[in-house]
Design brief:
The complex is a heterodimer.
Chain A: E1 4-7, E2 10-13, E3 19-25, E4 32-37, E5 44-49, E6 56-57, E7 68-72, E8 75-80, E9 89-96, E10 104-106, E11 110-114
Parallel strand pairs in A: 2-11
Antiparallel strand pairs in A: 1-3, 3-8, 4-5, 4-9, 5-6, 7-8, 9-10, 9-11
Chain B: E1 3-7, E2 10-14, E3 19-26, E4 32-38, E5 43-49, E6 56-58, E7 61-66, E8 71-76, E9 85-92, E10 97-99, E11 103-108
Parallel strand pairs in B: 2-11
Antiparallel strand pairs in B: 1-3, 3-8, 4-5, 4-9, 6-7, 7-8, 9-10, 9-11
Classes of the chains: A mainly beta, B mainly beta.
């Protein structure tokens, strides 16, 4: 399976600021996804990061708040903009395994705390 | 709307017990059902099931899918304290995973 890294691992940010999270995969993958996990909750899909085109956002998530880049088949970034304490969550990127196309593997996650 | 429901939400057992975790779903364009173990941040992949009645097994863990009744179970035999985690069920629809709430499993020595 693909090896996925995320940076930063954790951060504490002040409200009103923005944070960019990076996701790097050790192989080329078609599908990359960004999830949010709020405290005590399950995972919610934010968007699908498409290479060469705009990300596809799920209901309740907008590009102005969560801009995503996907410059190539091994890298993506998610920015959490104009943060508020409600954005405190774990943010996870995942990829679909090309060989077993429906299996999704997750990066180590970024724990964000907004004060 | 696609929905995945796990039960129980929380389970506490003693080391050595066998546990069964449940996952039911309503998803359009079903592709797969996946089980994950989440201990800290990142969910770790356990199984993917696509066909009914075929058991997937890895050590003390096993899982099976019933596509007619729309549910899956995850069994853990001879539980160990290291099995303590949140177990997540996710169902793949149209290129998207929908997650259940998770089952928090605690194994006491």
């Amino acid at each position: 399976s693909a090896v996925i890294s995320q940076k930063p691992s954790r951060d504490i940010c002040q409200r009103g600021t923005s944070l960019t999270i990076q996701c790097q995969v050790d192989s080329q993958v078609t599908m990359m996804f960004w999830y949010r996990q709020q405290p005590g909750q399950s995972l919610t899909l934010i968007a699908t990061a498409n290479q060469g085109s705009e990300a596809t956002y799920e209901s309740g998530f907008v590009i102005d708040k969560f801009p995503i880049s996907r410059p190539n088949l091994t890298f993506s970034t998610l920015t959490v903009s104009n943060m508020s304490p409600e954005d405190s969550s774990i943010y996870l990127c995942s990829v679909e395994d090309g060989a077993n196309s429906y299996e999704q593997y997750f990066g180590p996650g970024t724990r964000l705390t907004v004060t | 709307e696609d929905k995945v429901v796990q039960s129980p939400l929380s389970l506490v057992v003693h080391e050595g017990d066998t546990v069964t975790l449940n996952c039911s779903y309503e998803v359009t364009n079903f592709r797969s059902l996946l089980w994950y173990k989440q201990e800290k941040k990142a969910p770790t992949f356990l199984f993917m099931l696509t066909s009914s009645g075929i058991e997937k097994k890895s050590g003390r863990l096993s899982s099976i899918l019933d596509k007619k009744e729309l549910f899956s179970i995850l069994n853990i035999t001879a539980t160990q304290t290291g099995d303590s985690a949140v177990y997540l069920c996710a169902v793949g629809g149209a290129q998207k995973l929908v997650f259940g709430q998770g089952t928090r499993l605690t194994i006491n020595p």
